Amino acid sequence: MSQTITCAVCGAPARAAFAAPQPEIAPDLDMRPGEPARSTLPDWIQQCPRCRAAAPDLSALPKAAKAIVESDAYHALSTSGLEETLPFRRWALICERTGDHPQQAEALLQAAWAADDAAVMTDAARLRTEVAALWDGTEDVELGLRRLDVLRRAGLFDQAAAWADVLAARQQGETGRLILAFQKARIATRDVGRHLISAALPPPSATPHVSHGKRAQTGFWSRLLRK
Asked: What SS3 string covers 23-79?
C-alpha cells in the first residue's frame, strides 16, 4: 500500500515521493540512469489530484509554490507541449520561479527523456536546448560533459563542437578525455543518438549506480572523473 502525504499547496492527500530502484547498468552520457530505474521515469514527479501541483515530494513544496500553481503560466503548460512531459515541465516552472535553477535544468532534462520515450524528437530537442542554455558556461566538470551530450542530442552540432573545444582546453582526467574524444567523433558524424557512458570507456568499466534523485557528482561521476 503506497504512503499518502499532504500537498503543501492545497492540503489534499497525495502520493509520497517515489523511490526508484537501483540501476543495474551504466547510465547514458547525460546521466539518465540504466534499467530498472530508467523505466520508472513517469513515477519520478508526483502531481496533486486537486491543484495539479507537481514535484518529486509534494509535501516539501515552498509557500511560494501556491501562487505559481495558480498562475496563468502554469495553467498554460497543460495546453502546450507533450502530455508525457507535462509533470516535469510543471516542476521546472516551479523551480524557475523559486530560483532553483539547478533543479529546473534537471526537470527539463527529465522532460526530454520523457519525450524520447514518446518518440517525439522535436520536443526532446527543444527541451535539451533549454537545458543547454541553463548550463551555459558551467565550470563544473560533470555538468560540462553532460551539457556536451545535451547539445549533441539536440542536434546543435556547431555549438557542441565549440563546447567540446572549451572543455578540451580545461584540465581533464583520463576519463574526461575519453568521453570528449567519443563525443567529438559522434558530433562529426551528426549523431543525435543515445549512448551509454560505458561505450566511451575501455573495458572494464564499473557499473554505476546513480539514483535519479541525487546529483551525479556525489556518486559515480565523482569517482569516474578522478580517474
From this structure: CCCCCECCCCCCCCCHHHHHHCCEECCCCCCEECCHHHCCCCHHHHHCCHHHHHHHH
| Dihedral over alpha carbons 156, 31, 45, 66 (to 10 degrees) | -60
Residue carrying C-alpha cell 572543455: 167
Name, in order, each residue with C-beta under 8 angstroms of 129's C-beta and a sequence gap of 6 or more: 154, 156
At a CB cut-off of 8 Å and minimum separation 6, what does 189 contact? none
* Cβ-contact 61, 94 below 8 angstroms: yes
Radius of gyration of the chain (CA): 18
Instruction: Report pLDDT digits (tens) over 151-162.
Output: 999 999 999 999
Position 127 pLDDT exceeds 50: yes
pTM: 0.90
Rounded to whole angstroms, how far apart are CA atoms 18 and 56? 7
